[in-house]
Amino acid sequence: MHPVLKIIQSRAQVTTVAGHTPLVLDSPHSGTVYPDDFGTVRELATLRRAEDTHVEKLYAFAPALGVAWVEAHFPRSYLDANRDTTEIDTTMLDGAWTDPVSTDPRVLSKVRLGKGLIWKLTDEGLPIYDRQLPVDEVRQRIDSCWRPYHAAVTQAVDEAHARHGYAIHINCHSMPAIAASHATDFPGLAHADFVIGDRDGSTADPALSRKLCEHLRGLGYSVDYNHPYKGVELVRRNGDPAGNRHSIQVEINRKLYMDEATLALDETGAARLQAHLRSMVEMLLATDPR
Fold first, then answer.
1. How far is CA 138 from CA 80, 144, 146, 206, in A?
2. Which of 83, 102, 201, 252 has its CA 20 to 30 A from that of 170?
3. Which pLDDT belongs to residue 9?
4. How far apart are CA 189 and CA 66, in angstroms?
C-alpha cells in the first residue's frame, strides 16, 4: 500500500479507503447498521436476509493492494443505494412527491416487486412497514445515505481515471442460491456461482467483461453474463467505456461461503473464495483495457 494514499474516510453511513491503482471496488448492500428511525414492523432476522452478507469480509484484502474501497453501512432494506432516486413508489408516502419519478417499465419492474429506492416488501413479499412514510423522512434518507454513497464511488472512479487514464470499477454483490419470490423477475431461479453484468456492454468493454468471466471459469466456477443481473444504478452512473471508465457488477452465490439460513460464515469456503477473488483482483490490476 502506498503510504501516502492510505486514507480512510469514515462518515456515519459510508466508509471510503483511498487507493492508488486504476481499480475501485464498492459494496452497497453489505451494511448492517440499522438506523433508529427505520420504523419497520419486520424483525431484524427477516431484514438481514436482504443483506449482501459478509461481502465486505470477502474483499478485505483489496485496500492492501492499493485498490480503492467504498462500503455502505446502512442496510439496503432502509435505502437501496443501487437504485436511482426516481425509483420511488409514491403510494408509500404520506404526501406529494415533487421530484422526478421514473416511467421506464424496465425500471418500474423492481418498484412493482417492492424493491425501489425505499423497499416496500422483503424478498419473500412481506410488508416492511405498517405506516406511510413522511416525505421528509425519505428525503433525509436520500441526503444521509444515497448522496454520500454515490459521491464517494464517483470520486474514487474519477481519481483512479485521473491517475491512470482509465478506471475499472467493480460493484460487489452477493445473491442467494435460489431467487426468492419478490427478489427478481426470475423467482425460483437457481443462480450460477457468479453473475457478471455490464448492462449489455454499455458500462464496460465487453472484452474486459468476457475476460473476467473466463478467469472465473478457469478457477472452476459457473458464470453467467448479463443474466439474470445486468447491473443497475452504480454501474450505470460510473461506466463509460468510450471514456475508459469500465464498470462491472459482480454477483457471488452465497452458497459458496456462508450458511444462508443462519448467516454464519463458512470459514473454509470463504477462505477458498477469497483466494480466488484476490486472483481476480490481481488479474484486473494487470489489465489495461485501452
1. 12, 10, 11, 37
2. 102
3. 58
4. 37
Supply the pTM of this predicted model. 0.94
Q: Residue 45 and residue 34: Cα distance in Å, rounded?
A: 12
Contact 174, 53 (CB under 8 A): yes
Nearest to 168 by CA among 284, 7, 279, 59: 284
Query: 95 is written with which cell numbers?
Result: 404526501
* Cell numbers found for residue 88: 420511488
Chain-centroid distance of CA 250 in Å reads: 8
Grid cell digits, residue 23: 481499480
- Give residue for cell 503510504: 3
Q: Compute how many other C-beta atoms are within 10 angstroms of the C-beta atom of residue 114.
A: 20
pLDDT band at 6 (very low <50, low <70, confident <90, very high): very low
266 contact partners, CB below 8 Å, separation of at least 6? 257, 258, 259
